[in-house]
Structure formats: structure tokens, C-alpha cells
Amino acid sequence: MPWIQLRLAADEETAEKYSDWLMACGSQAVTFIDAQDTPIYEPLPGDEVLYWNNTVVMGLFEASHDMDKAIAYLKSIHPDKAEMQYKLEQLEDKDWEREWMDNFHPMKFGNRLWICPSWLDVPEPEAVNVMLDPGLAFGTGTHPTTALCLTWLDSLDLEGKTVVDFGCGSGILSLAALKLGAKKVIGIDIDPQALQASLANAERNGVAERLELYLPKDQPEFKADVVVANILAGPLRELAPVIMNYVADHGLLALSGILEEQGEELQGIYAQWCDMDPIAVQEEWVRLSGTHK
């Protein structure tokens, strides 16, 4: 498959934000390099990463992606639109999936939950192990927002509970909930490919019979004991009434995909429906959680 690479000039203060922006506009993978072309791949949760003074943030896009739209989006959120330095280049075909697989390793969240690549042996066979093969486009658990949600799920007693995974992507949170004892998980996503990835991962983990997947337009009405939404602050703000409509009375809610400076505003929005817990922070990202009043 042919690819397009978008390079953005950055520094140690802006590199991480540029990475998030690239993923938000459809990048399949992000790498950081310095002037000597030394790469940094996506770090594991909790790892401290020091970027160089002159960093290039590279986003990988499918050749069919609308790059004019992606660049327009980046310019619209860039603090100095006139100074956004970027370069587009065609890439020769190569085994990007193999390179990605080489940098995805087993990770532990909380006390008992492991996310493991499907092609590697599990470190703790007696633990709760989710075998994941998300492909390039969907989450693996390495991003702090996913890590925050996985740790929260690990802290709950999910036996016999119904869970909603709003914006399910690869299904990583759905699978974790099912492996942790949930009776049923309902995954919702606007992307049909995400639903396909979730189903494939559920079948690989032997839990597909307890997972229901829907596009928003097709979902039935229901209430759930636990709702988790790891998307972005904008949709969490705009869709707050929709998300809360899934939460049963006294049900639990967790929200992520939120930058630290956005946390208090969203905490206030959801506080009209929920008794909110203290904000959980990892790196520059936060998780909000609470109980439906």
C-alpha cells in the first residue's frame, strides 16, 4: 500500500502536541526524529521522554487520505498559522505493520490486567490477559488516555455488569471489561472499520458472544452499569447528554481523551449529572470519573 508522510517542524515543548494533532486528523502512526534522524517511537505509559530542541514529528497517512483537509485542520489549531512548517512526501511501500509490531510489547495496568500483542507469549498466564492485534489504525494502550481508562476498569468489580464503550476503536476497553468479568459490553463507534477491529479482537479473545457493536445510528436504547468514553474533549462536551443517557441510575462513568487544561471545564459539565471523583492525571492527560446521581 502506498503512503504519504507529513513532517512537522517542532521542538521539545511542541512535539507531543503535534503528535496528538496528527492522530486527530487521521495519521496511522507517528514518529519523532532529530536532526540526526534518530527515531523515538511511542513510549510506554509512565516512561519519561526527552525530545530534542530540533524535532521533526512525522505522521504516516494512507495515500488516499485527504491531505488538504488534514493540513487545513492543523493550520486551524496551530498557534501561529503563518509559521507552521511542514513537508509532504510520498513513501515507497514497506512493511509498516512489521515495524509497528516490533515496537508493541506486553503492558500491565492496575493490579491484574495485561494488554499483550497476539503474537507474543503472555508474561503472567494467571493474570487477566487481553490479546490485542489492532493494526496500525487503532489504539494499543500505550497512550496515557487509554492507560488511564484501563487502570480504572481494573479497579472495578465488573462481575455481572453491563458496560458501554463509547468510541470503541480497536475494542481494547471492551475486551478489558469482558475479561475482567462484565456480563456484556456494548461498543459504539462512528467508523465501521473500528467495529470490524473490535469484533476480530473479541473473537481472538473468545468473548465475541458477549460483545455487541453498533454504529450510532443503529444502536438500540439501553442503560448500562458502567460507561467509558475515551474520545476527545470536543465530542465529550457536545455529546454529554447522549453519553449520560447510557448511564443507569447510580451507574459509573469514566471519560478521557482530555488534556489537563480541559479537565475542570468538563468536570463541571458532567457534575450536573454525576458525583465526580478527583481528576486523575497522567502526563498531560486526565481521566474524569463519577457516579450517576
Give a quick rundown of the structure.
The protein has 293 residues and is an alpha/beta fold. 27% of the residues lie in helices and 31% in strands.
Number of helices: 9
Let me know the average pLDDT. 82
Largest sheet geometry: 8 strands, mixed
Could you state the CATH homologous superfamily of the largest domain?
Vaccinia Virus protein VP39
Order of helices and strands: EHEEEHEHEEEHEHEHEEHHEHEEE
Distance between the termini: 50 Å
- What is the CATH third-level topology name of the largest domain? Rossmann fold
Can you describe what's shown?
It is a single chain. This protein has helices at residues 15-24, 67-77, 96-101, 144-154, 172-179, 192-204, 233-238, 240-245, 263-270; strands spanning 3-10, 29-33, 39-40, 55-62, 86-91, 107-109, 113-117, 128-132, 162-166, 184-188, 211-214, 224-230, 247-259, 274-276, 280-282, 285-292. The protein is an alpha/beta fold. The chain has 2 domains: 3-99, 2-Layer Sandwich (Alpha-Beta Plaits); 139-292, Rossmann fold. Strands 9, 10, 11, 12, 13, 14, 15 and 16 form an 8-stranded mixed sheet that branches. A 5-stranded antiparallel sheet has the order 3-2-4-1-5, with helices on one face. Helix 4 (144-154) packs parallel to helix 5.
